[in-house]
Amino acid sequence: MSTTTFMPYDEALARFEPVLGLETHVELGTASKMFCGCPTAFGAPPNTQVCPVCLALPGSLPVANATAIESTIRIGLALNCSIAEWCRFARKNYFYPDMPKNYQISQYDEPLCVDGYLDVEVEGTTVRIGIERVHLEEDTGKSTHVGGSTGRIQGADHSIVDYNRAGIPLVEIVTKPIPGTDRLAPEVARAYVTELRELMRTLGVSDVRMEEGSLRCDVNVSLMPRGSAEWGTRTETKNVNSLRSVERSVRSEIERQAAILADGGRIIQETRHFHEDTGFTTSGRSKEEAQDYRYFPEPDLVPIAPDPAWVAGLKAGLPELPSVRRKRLQAEWGVSDLDMAAMHNADAIGLVEATVAAGAPAADARKWWMGELARRANEGGVALAELPITPAQVARVTELVASGALNDKLARQVLEGVLAGEGAPDEVVAARGLQIVNDEGALSAIIDEVIAANADAAEKIRGGKIAAVGALVGGVMKASRGKADAGRARALILEKLGVSE
Amino acid sequence: MSVITREEVAHLARLSRLALADEELDHFAAQLDQIVGAVARVAEVATADIPPSSHALPLENVFRPDEVRPSLTPDQALSGAPAVEDDRFRVPRILGEEA
What we know:
The complex is a heterodimer. Chain A has helices at residues 9-15, 66-78, 185-203, 243-262, 308-316, 322-333, 337-345, 349-357, 362-380, 391-402, 408-419, 425-432, 440-453, 455-462, 469-479, 486-496, and strands spanning 16-27, 64-65, 82-83, 90-93, 103-106, 113-122, 125-138, 142-146, 158-162, 169-175, 215-225, 235-240, 270-274, 281-286, 296-297. By secondary structure, chain A is of the alpha+beta class. In chain A, the strands form three sheets. Chain A has a nine-stranded mixed β-sheet with strand order 3-6-7-10-1-11-12-13-14. In chain A, strands 5-4-15 form a three-stranded antiparallel β-sheet, with no helix packed on it. A two-stranded antiparallel ribbon of chain A has the order 8-9.
């Protein structure tokens, strides 16, 4: 295998302008498959969710899932698309064993939804991503390659196929070419997929789990020399299965293509595979031309003609969309664009919202999720939402702090206890004995000890050097193992020393 | 005059994984020829004033509710497979030697 050369990103961007395109596949969360009644659960034992229709046994006929059609139209509406008044499924012929029919039922020149857009925020600016089309098709089966050293298709002796996934409704969302993103191309790509994922969640049409493949992204990148009006040849990178990978694959492909073009070479239009471990892409099969698929209208399914009144009803019934919701929450919480963007990037908005709904002030909810909890999530390499703590529990901690029962230091210990599985905040407080020492008698006794042990400092304070009180408060906090209320301790020390501020 | 040759029938049979005897090749060649001839008559009536159509029935919007129906068991599903491994359909190498 020849080695791939890369041009440093800054140099690549100085010489070339990238044009992006993204194709995203979303598995709909319907109970049954697209054209038959088989269930769609992820992770079922192989070939337990198959029937004559999705196995393409002779004599079986597909019937379209009404909910899948409705979900696709709702997605199109949320992406500001026009909805086709009449359209058909198309048969996409190809010889590959992941579809038992030797074809995939898809849509070709008559997609359900066309010509929309999605606005995404990147570094404080709004980028409008044009949506070319949204169409409905069926997912393919899952092949496992046997006999190769790496489990890859190359060098495999044979393959084994599980058709549980074959026939699950799959929505393909294709952007228009996205020029003009310049050096922010990787960030724009990531922001788009992030926004799309959030939109799907809000619509409730898919669980959009990239790690389980219910959201998959193909990233198209081409470069043109600065000042050129003609777009270059694009490559399509498949197998991009995390938001971070979307960003990395764009960057890596820009660096790779720039090195080839600068060296006088040409880009081959091809499919490339992204490798999660290295962050690089490698060449896959050459891209088939569309006519190779011999598309024709699917004879086994009758045309779809969505009733305009029904479509209008679906549009009126759309939930508040993520970008609108973010603007509303930002105003409600009174946070800056920067803080809001940080929460968005950390996937914290929903968590903060739920914590606020559970009674916490917005500032406190944000502080804990974006501070201590973000740090913990980062340490553990997990998403914030995966931390074993609920918004209600975080709200309870903020309440304990607000009431004076905990200070921030103790609150962090409570959070640590909850994350460690020691129970709800109140249980952790009780089990670890984390209440602030509010018992004046106990606090008074600790203060007396500390004053006695720090006679010099006490003398200075008596003499008017009030700043020296810090050392004594520190001593009290240490002696109480952080459980004293520092403000109360300070007042008591000054009182005992006969000094007033 | 026959346009479908027995070689073509043999080729179709191989693609369809059908085992045909020699005399069946001639038999089906003649039959397929008749079918192709019958379909060819469509071209005689297809004129400019007849719009192309993809479906024989004037139906639209035939959907099923999103309800789960029983699937086959893996044994049933795999019963027609030429080869099985780990409850999966075993298929020949997907990429050719050139890959």
